[in-house]
Amino acid sequence: MRYLSTRNSKLYVTASEAILKGLSEDGGLFVPESIPELTTSLDALSKMSYKEVAYDVMSRFFTDFTEEELKACIDAAYDSKFETENICEMKKAGGAWFLELYHGKTIAFKDMALSILPHLLTTSAKKNGVKEEIVILTATSGDTGKAALAGFADVPGTRIIVFYPKDGVSRVQELQMVTQKGDNTKVIAIKGNFDDAQTGVKEMFNNKELNERLKEKGFRFSSANSINIGRLIPQVVYYVFAYAQLLKKGEIKAGEQINIVVPTGNFGNILAAYYAKRMGLPVNKLVCASNENKVLYDFFKTGTYDKNREFILTTSPSMDILISSNLERLLFHTAGDSSEKCAALMSELKTFGKYTVSEDMKENMSDFLGGFATEKQTGDIIGRLFGEDGYVIDTHTAVGAHVYDTYRKETKDDTVTVIASTASPYKFSRAVVGGLLGKVFTEESDFELIDMLHELSGIELPEAVKEIKTAEIRHKTVCEKNEMQKEVERALGL
Ligand SMILES: *Cc1c(COP(=O)(O)O)cnc(C)c1O
User: Fold this and answer.
1) pTM for this prediction
2) H/E element holding 408?
3) Ligand 1 site residues, Cβ closer than 6 angstroms
4) pLDDT (tens digit per residue) in 187-222
5) How many CB atoms lie within 10 A of CB 191?
6) What is the 75 CA–ligand 1 centroid distance (Å)?
7) Which residues make Cβ contacts (< 8 Å) with residue 434, sequence separation at least 6?
């Protein structure tokens, strides 16, 4: 299986090269030349452990890894770092199945992929005879940063530099990052929003002169953002696993279709669900749930993507995004794997901040359905699910839960539905307690709210939360958004 750029289908690389590069030289994203078929029977999958499903799925994509290499990566990733043996759990509430993807080290779903990415990356470096030290450059809306830091801290042959929007993440998210240990880690706040951070990082990746200087000093960039295929493919695994678990529980029959609802920001998580469907997993609708930054909702409704709008800070900050990078992959696939069409749309986005897809492309996206939740609706559904089922969800998951609730009322579609539950409620205690009690909390400290949530819900405090209460703050750099490159040069001594 080869990988090609969404902007130039003549640029072929192997899976391990795509993982190493992160982004193609032309600014495009790597996509598999075809989506492999899930040939293992659903019954057989329902008897497998998470790791076994992971191997079954990933080996179809990462074809230049040996069985031994890939299994070593999987074993190193999905171990006791996760608080549950199953790696992820499924809970039924509000008529849907919540797929809890937050039992890893940093209590957000990003751990599912970022616990394996460092191993995929260092294995890829070895396979390709790369001598340089790998510098992971990452922009984060909050959760990627910490999960990447945790994954790469003290991994030999790597360094990691994380940029986050100073006022665009929750206090718990910020504390998790700035207390990160590891001599190879660096965390920098920028005075800007997530899109500024992401744009700055992309520019450094594409800066030829900078990359040459890096090489001379024995470094090379790679990315831990969800644009890296080494993050996307491990995310396909849990949708297959979730289906298999529903089958095992007797909730569905083999072959029965399910719906999948995903609270969406950069479009990585839901794209993984789309890949699972394209592999042959019986999936009906893919429901893309947005917060008030509802650029994707408008896109699926009208066919026009338009980022020219106000950027809204919400209580689901990991979804406060106006440029959903991974959507580029969907454009490529739904344009009939045409890099010309995809590149043209991306160039329109760059010049005008918007583009409109053709009727054909829109038709090819009919598996997708957009929905969104306002801040009030997000709080309300948190309170309602707790009141009715005693189940507590975080604000991001609540966006998905609200969109599902509305969809079900409008369509009467009673297809078995999985909602991706993307973070522990403890990560966003302020808004979650607010939702539970129907109030806005502004005076209380984050730790007071964590304690309140503990009392209200009885959910055990995760290690990740206990840790930050006492950890030392190690990272204090704040920079302007146009100083990102300077900070990188300083950190690496260029
Ligand atoms: C990153 C994140 C999302 C959005 O996922 P994408 O893959 O960027 O669409 C949703 N919820 C949480 C908690 C996240 O950390």
Assistant:
1) 0.94
2) helix 395-411
3) 108, 110, 143, 226, 263-269, 318-319, 396, 422-423
4) 999 999 988 998 999 899 889 999 999 999 999 998
5) 14
6) 24
7) 315, 379, 440, 441
